[in-house]
Amino acid sequence: MSEKPSWMDTVEKMASQAATEVGCLLYDLEFVGAGKGRTLRVFIDREDGNVTIDDCSNVSKGLNLLLDADEELIPGGAYNLEVSTPGLDRHLNKPWHFQKVIGKKVYIKTSKALESVGVTDKKWKSAKTVEQVLDAADESEIKFVVDDVEIKIPYGMIDKAKLVFEMTKGQKK
């Protein structure tokens, strides 16, 4: 994962403060684009997962006030601010993101074959992707158990991870 600029730490603290003030938590943020197309994306969540449009609007207003107070914080001039939920297929970046989705199906892409973390099962040792139900997550790694094969992947080896949205029987399309 790419290194973030030092000013993003300050923006992250501000976004966390703005989210907390309205009863939400900061899930993640990203700064993308170039020139006039630059966008600061802030993703918020609630413990119960029920983020409203008003929550997004209130966090946006609160964060805007904080960012406007220090116009020099984000280098390069104008940018757009977007506040939303992480979505149904949310990206998983931090240990608590993984801990929140234990028991759900996730997609993981690793930087090395699973053999490098001790997986010897013929089916899995050369794999670099896993799409299975997450069994456990702690501060250093995640764990899957597939057909009695235990697969432990340290966070440092994960290139990409996201929740896999699955419709359950009886849900409307």
Secondary structure layout plus pairing:
Blueprint lengths: L6 H15 L3 E8 L6 E7 L7 H16 L11 E5 L10 H6 L4 E6 L18 E5 L2 E2 L3 E6 L2 E6 L3 E6 L10
Parallel strand pairs: 2-3
Antiparallel strand pairs: 1-2, 4-5, 4-9, 6-7, 7-8
- Compute the number of helices: 3
Specify the CATH class of the largest domain.
Alpha Beta
Which structural class do the helices and strands define?
Answer: alpha+beta
CATH topology of the largest domain: GMP Synthetase, Chain A, domain 3
Tell the overall outline.
Answer: globular
Assembly classification: single chain
Measured by DSSP, the beta-strand proportion falls in 25-35%
Helical fraction:
10-25%
* First and last CA, distance: 34 Å
Number of domains: 2
The total strand number stands at 9
CATH superfamily name of the largest domain? Answer: RimP-like superfamily, N-terminal
- Topology as a string of helices (H) and strands (E): HEEHEHEEEEEE
Descriptive terms for the model:
173 residues; alpha+beta; GMP Synthetase, Chain A, domain 3; SH3 type barrels; three-stranded mixed sheet; three-stranded antiparallel sheet; 29% strand; globular
Write up what this structure looks like:
This protein has 173 residues and is α+β, with helices and mostly antiparallel strands. The protein has two domains: 78 residues, GMP Synthetase, Chain A, domain 3 (2-Layer Sandwich), CATH 3.30.300.70; 69 residues, SH3 type barrels, CATH 2.30.30. The protein contains three helices and nine strands, in the order αββαβαββββββ. The protein has a three-stranded mixed beta sheet, covered by helices on one side. Helix 1 packs across helix 2. It starts with 6 loop residues before the first helix and ends in a 10-residue tail after the last strand. The mean pLDDT is 91.
